[in-house]
């Protein structure tokens, strides 16, 4: 019931976050502090890759929603990839799925990040 | 099985490990283990975070029974009266900024169990959660 978090800078101003283990009432402060570091960099996109996330509690959901809100306020976007069935179920329970941008595969994510990248380069 | 913990968030993993360890021995399915973990994490977090006025040591008792037909979890504490059965859940568009304190966790618990029963007895909250085990009795 522990959490480790790896962060990868995919393209300029796109951060992929890989939480592994359990995002819950005991581990969410670690997630929050990683996210705070990332937010200081003013990312355009944060991708939460949830492939290795085994458990998500309401405290973890709050952390994710907090990230989404903070990033939105800075003009950035929170997106998701690799939702495992048990994690998808949690988002379903709280009826959050319709408001989430979820990539179905890495190719789709890369295409999206490329598009964002081009926008930045061309100064749109 | 009875497990007693103190009112500290860092007691929750020990509680869940003990409860799920017992349930596994009783042959509980993955789904049942998930129900136990979710219920204990959400309910006990709420109790510890919002149930006590002062920072004092209290104990919380959890009793778990598993039979062929059902899982029964009983949570007994001396925190402030709090009835989750009474708790209104407001559906919304997924923007959860307006969720009331503890509402999200309790809503999640109600999705995974069949019965939530609350009694206040003297100075104790007694919360009972029941999940019927599908497959038993041909249901």
Précis, in short:
Chain A is an alpha/beta fold. Chain A contains four helices and six strands, in the order E-E-H-E-E-H-E-H-E-H.
Residue runs with pLDDT of under 50 for 5 or more positions of chain B: none
Number of strands of chain A: 6
Uncertain runs of chain A? none
- Rg of chain A over CA atoms, rounded to whole Å, is 14 Å
Distance N terminus to C terminus of chain B? 26 Å
Key traits:
heterodimer, A: about 120 residues, alpha/beta, six-stranded mixed beta sheet, 4 helices, 6 strands, about 30% strand, B: about 140 residues, alpha+beta, five-stranded antiparallel beta sheet, globular
How would you describe this protein?
The complex is a heterodimer of chains A (124) and B (139). Chain A has helices spanning 28-39, 58-73, 85-93, 106-121, and strands at 3-11, 14-23, 45-49, 53-56, 77-81, 101-103. Chain A is α/β, with parallel strands linked by helices. In chain A, strand 5 (77-81), helix 3 and strand 6 (101-103) form a beta-alpha-beta unit. The longest helix of chain A is centred in the middle third of the chain and has 16 residues, at 58-73. Chain A starts with a strand and ends with a helix. With 139 residues, chain B is an alpha+beta fold. Chain B is 32% helix and 29% strand. Chain B is built from 3 helices and 6 strands. In chain B, strands 1-2-3-5-4 form a 5-stranded antiparallel β-sheet, covered by helices on one side. In chain B, strand 4 (115-121) and strand 5 (124-132) form a beta hairpin. In chain B, helix 2 (30-50) packs antiparallel against helix 3. Chain B is globular. The model of chain B has no long low-confidence stretch (mean pLDDT 88). Classes of the chains: A alpha/beta (124), B alpha+beta (139). Chain A binds chain B through residues 1, 24-26, 55, 57-59, 61-62, 65, 69, 86, 90, 93-100, and chain B through 9-10, 12-13, 16-17, 34, 37-38, 41-42, 45, 91-97, 104-105, 107-108, 111.
How do the helices and strands line up, and which of them pair or pack?
The complex is a heterodimer of chains A (124) and B (139).
Chain A: E1 3-11, E2 14-23, H1 28-39, E3 45-49, E4 53-56, H2 58-73, E5 77-81, H3 85-93, E6 101-103, H4 106-121
Parallel strand pairs in A: 2-3, 2-4, 3-5, 5-6
Antiparallel strand pairs in A: 1-2
Chain B: E1 2-6, H1 12-25, H2 30-50, E2 59-66, E3 70-77, H3 103-112, E4 115-121, E5 124-132, E6 134-137
Antiparallel strand pairs in B: 1-2, 2-3, 3-5, 4-5
């Amino acid at each position: 019931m522990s959490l480790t978090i790896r962060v990868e800078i995919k393209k300029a101003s796109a951060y992929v976050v890989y939480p592994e283990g359990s995002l819950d009432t005991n581990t969410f402060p670690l997630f929050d502090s990683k996210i705070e570091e990332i937010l200081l960099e003013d990312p355009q996109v944060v991708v939460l890759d949830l492939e290795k996330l085994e458990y998500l509690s309401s405290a973890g959901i709050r952390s994710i929603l907090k990230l989404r809100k903070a990033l939105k306020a800075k003009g950035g976007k929170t997106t998701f990839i690799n939702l495992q069935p048990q994690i998808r179920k949690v988002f379903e329970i709280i009826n959050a799925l319709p408001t989430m941008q979820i990539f179905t595969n890495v190719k789709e994510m890369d295409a999206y990040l490329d598009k964002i990248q081009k926008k930045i380069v061309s100064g749109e | 099985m009875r497990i007693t913990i103190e009112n500290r968030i860092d007691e929750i993993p020990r509680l869940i490990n003990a409860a799920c360890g017992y349930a596994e021995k009783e042959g509980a399915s993955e789904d049942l283990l998930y129900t136990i973990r979710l219920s204990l994490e959400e309910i006990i977090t709420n109790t510890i975070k919002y149930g006590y006025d002062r920072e004092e040591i209290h104990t919380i008792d959890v009793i778990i029974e598993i039979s062929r037909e059902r899982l029964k979890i009983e949570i007994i504490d001396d925190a402030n009266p709090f009835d989750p059965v009474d708790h209104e859940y407001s559906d919304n568009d997924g923007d959860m900024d307006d969720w009331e304190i503890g509402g999200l966790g309790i809503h999640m618990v109600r999705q995974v169990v069949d019965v939530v029963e609350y009694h206040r007895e003297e100075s104790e909250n007694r919360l009972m959660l029941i999940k019927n085990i599908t497959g038993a009795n041909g249901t």
